[in-house]
Amino acid sequence: MKAEERRTQKKYDMLAEHYHNFRTKENPQGWFYNEMLEMPTTLSVLGNVKGKKILDFGCGSGIYARLLTKKGAKLKGFDISPEMLKIAKQLNPKLDLRLGSGNKIPFKEKFDIVLASLVVHYLKDWNKMFKQVKRVLKKGGYFIFSTGNPMTEVREKIKIGKKKIYTFGDYFTERKINSSWEVKGKKVKMPFFHLTYETIIKTIIKNGFEIVDYKDCYPIKKAKKIFPEDYATAIKRPSFNVWKVKLK
């Protein structure tokens, strides 16, 4: 396992219980950035999954796995974090969920769809990731992945007088960026890799895929009452986007 994978594994092992409880118990209707922003967009791109054989790439605590299984998908999945996987298996005891990574997918069979929700930005080598996805995807199958918006993720906070505002940062330098998660009053650094739109598009094409759909994530209406501040920001600035690419 590479160094960046080990770091990601340790972070998510540490955050696993908090992450799942935050989304399901502290916010029973779901957390804004997942259930009300990324997930509705991703599900609209996925479409009808009944009878589809789907691989949940980076299944986390199993929230997507449970939802898609209820919608009739034949789902299997994997995650890099043993602690996340433990929760996912408790939530989905009948599913085949394994320990693995995007650099070494722990399945040999072929799937109709590979779904990666907010996980690919943790991987430095996208060519290796696409090679792994191709190995487990049927010809004509779809790789659907959501990730941070390349323009928005390079924002930088600056201070002007007593106010702190966001400004547009360095878009063209592809690099590791540390985002910050707050857990029980403490800030935890979560590193991810920033790529430009140009690199993402050329990597998709280079690896034998064609882009068939793309959507910027837009919040659902009910989020306006539950998370008014987050909603007000998200209707003006895209946090995430969803790509649907087809293996030729």
Brief description of this entry?
This protein has helices spanning 3-26, 32-46, 63-70, 82-91, 126-136, 197-206, 223-226, 228-234; strands spanning 53-57, 74-79, 96-99, 111-117, 137-148, 156-160, 163-167, 175-183, 186-194, 209-216, 240-247. The protein is an alpha/beta fold and 248 residues long. Helix 1 (3-26) packs parallel to helix 4 (82-91).
Describe the structure.
- The chain has a single domain, classed as Vaccinia Virus protein VP39 (Rossmann fold, 3-Layer(aba) Sandwich), CATH 3.40.50.
- The mean pLDDT is 94.
- The chain is an alpha/beta fold.
- It has eight helices and eleven strands.
- It has helices at 3-26, 32-46, 63-70, 82-91, 126-136, 197-206, 223-226, 228-234, and strands at residues 53-57, 74-79, 96-99, 111-117, 137-148, 156-160, 163-167, 175-183, 186-194, 209-216, 240-247.
- The strands form three sheets. A seven-stranded mixed beta sheet has the order 3-2-1-4-5-11-10, sandwiched between helices.
